[in-house]
Amino acid sequence: MKSVIIGAHLRRDDIEPLAEVLPAADVFLSGLAVADDQPLGDRELLLRVARVRASLLERATFIAIRYGFAASTANEAMAKCAAHLDRWRALLEQHREEVEMTLKVLARERVPRPDRHDFVSGAEYLKALHAATAAVDVDPEFRSAAEEAMGKGRWLHRDNASLELAALVARDGVERVRGAGEELKRRFPGVPFLLSGPWPLEVFADADRE
Amino acid sequence: MLPEMTEELEELTLLETLDHLLDRGVVVAGDAVISIGDVDLLYLGLNIVLANVDAIIRTGRKS
Fold first, then answer.
1. Is the complex ipTM higher than 0.90?
2. In this complex, which of B12, B25, B61 lies closest to A66 when CB atoms are compared?
3. A126: which residues sit within 8 A by CB, 6+ positions away?
4. Nearest to A133 among B20, B48, B58 (CB)
């Protein structure tokens, strides 16, 4: 058997009995046990993990581990996470009462996506894709209003046509933010956006996004 | 709410859920190879980096 690792949690009872517990130094990893030969790309498995993930978040805030990490033993999982564990513990203590919410918004203008055939090297093509993504922006008035509705957050460039605002929200503030989202819809009927959440710590636990 | 609207909403929620599962959170070194229909995935060296291509590009932009 192997475990598909779902997240890192502060307490064992944040996980049990919803998922398997894999102790890892000062945190606890949640996992879903599957057969060794179970393909991780299986649709049903993805959906099962998604359901367990949602149930775990109802219990307590945790750090999301991107889908695809599997380990055969707790020791193996801990060894692979070793570099993160101290930071995770601190983040879990700091954000215990918060969850993430995200607002994906269509850009003012779609920046043309580069055509691979126009580039000799893959590196140049990737650079052009980066530039196209970074050039995307939203209406400044909407940007301010979204920040006001969501609270302090991080803007992420999604692709060449959209951006995303990720924000930390108090666990008991989710409904308030949803209400603010409805108000945004009324105020900016021409700006397509999707407000979603609550989510576990994803953007705010990802060191690459800091 | 109309049944079609409910269905659309459910589909949107599922897509959003899968997007977060596949494109968010901490990436941990692993050793599995994954492929999922209609989602472009990459396998790099000894570390698995599972995400859609746009996520890889965003990560690459920082390096």
1. no
2. B25
3. B57, B60
4. B58
Q: What is the pLDDT of residues B5-37, one digit of tens each?
A: 566 666 777 888 888 888 888 888 654 444 445
Residues 6+ apart with CB under 8 A from A37: none
Residue A103 exposed, middle or buried by CB count within 10 Å (0-12, 13-18, 19+): buried
Torsion of CA A190, A181, A53, A4, to 10 degrees: 40
Give the chain A residue nearest B29 (alpha carbons): A80
Gap between the Cα atoms of A124 and A127, Å rounded: 5
Closest residue in chain A to residue B40, using alpha carbons only? A41
Query: Is there a contact between A97 and A173 (Cβ–Cβ < 8 Å)?
Result: no
Task: Give the separation between CA A185 and CA A194, rounded to whole angstroms.
Answer: 10
* CATH 3.30.70 fits domain A98-209: yes
CA distance B2 to chain A (A): 19
User: Quick one: CA dihedral B30, A207, A201, A76, positive or negative?
Assistant: positive
* CATH 3.30.70 residue ranges for chain A: 98-209
In this prediction the pTM is 0.80
